[in-house]
Design a protein that fits this description.
This protein has 231 residues and is an alpha/beta fold. It folds into two domains: 128 residues, Toll/interleukin-1 receptor homology (TIR) domain (Rossmann fold), CATH 3.40.50.10140; 93 residues, Immunoglobulins (Immunoglobulin-like, Sandwich). Helix content is 31%, strand content 33%. The protein contains eight helices and twelve strands. The protein is elongated. It starts with a strand and ends with a strand.
């Protein structure tokens, strides 16, 4: 189950409602926030929008010539940007209508252009939902030194503003027969985490590395990356 937030201009409400209905058909367990369907009379709508955007797993923007001029959509884009920066997760998915102008706020995101077949568009949209959605990626170089020994390095890749959010990384090796080996902690620095978290190692036999990442000013784990090596 996932939490979705749909951002749109009221002039595109029919398309937004169609996306909402299709998500529920896909899995009725999903929670899909659409303001005209989800905000009760008398509620503090601005606070409710901020709360839902902060809690959402995926933020679907219906980008059109109408939404470009919507002050509400602009404010929602500001809030989702703040949420992404804090969580380290990509949440924004752009569904563009009629080749609307690409604005700076969405220029770095993959954009799905609409066609005349909504069913195809919807399943392409869901492929974006299921894709890897972290701003952080664990890169590694591992070489087999001889029949048993491996030598390698692991490090974090991310845009600069996200690297600065890293407080600490932890990793451990799992050799199958010895799964509870100690965690190795690497403390981050806001200015130089990429160089700081470049761990070199030597180890014997096949193994799995688990890398866990923590961010500043939050108790949340950004992600767990599993790297399995065998021969």
């Amino acid at each position: 189950m996932a939490n979705f937030f749909i951002s749109y201009s009221r002039k595109d409400a029919a398309i937004a409602d169609n996306i909402r209905n299709h998500i529920y058909k896909l899995d009725a367990g999903h929670d899909v926030f659409l303001d005209i369907k989800s905000i009760h009379v008398g509620a503090n709508w601005k606070a409710e929008l901020q709360r839902k955007i902060k809690a959402c797993d995926f933020f679907i923007l219906i980008h059109s010539n109408n939404s470009i001029n919507s002050p509400y959509v602009k404010e929602e884009l500001k809030w989702i940007s703040e949420s992404e920066l804090k969580s380290g997760m990509r949440k924004l998915i752009v569904y563009r209508l009629n080749y609307a102008e690409i604005i700076p706020e969405i220029a770095s995101y993959q954009i799905l252009d609409s066609t005349d077949n909504f069913t195809i568009d919807f399943f392409r949209l869901m492929q974006g939902v299921l894709a890897e959605n972290s701003f952080y990626n664990v890169e590694y170089e591992i070489m087999l030194e001889d029949e048993y020994w491996y030598k390698g390095k692991i490090w974090i890749e991310a845009p600069g503003q996200f690297l600065e959010k890293i407080q600490m990384a932890e990793y451990r090796f799992d050799y199958g027969w010895q799964p509870d080996v100690s965690l190795i902690t690497v403390n981050g620095t806001k200015s130089n985490i990429k160089k700081k978290f470049a761990v070199q190692f030597e180890t014997k036999y096949h193994f799995t590395i688990f890398v866990m990442l923590y961010l500043w000013n939050t108790k949340e784990l950004a992600f767990i990356k599993k790297i399995h090596i065998s021969h």
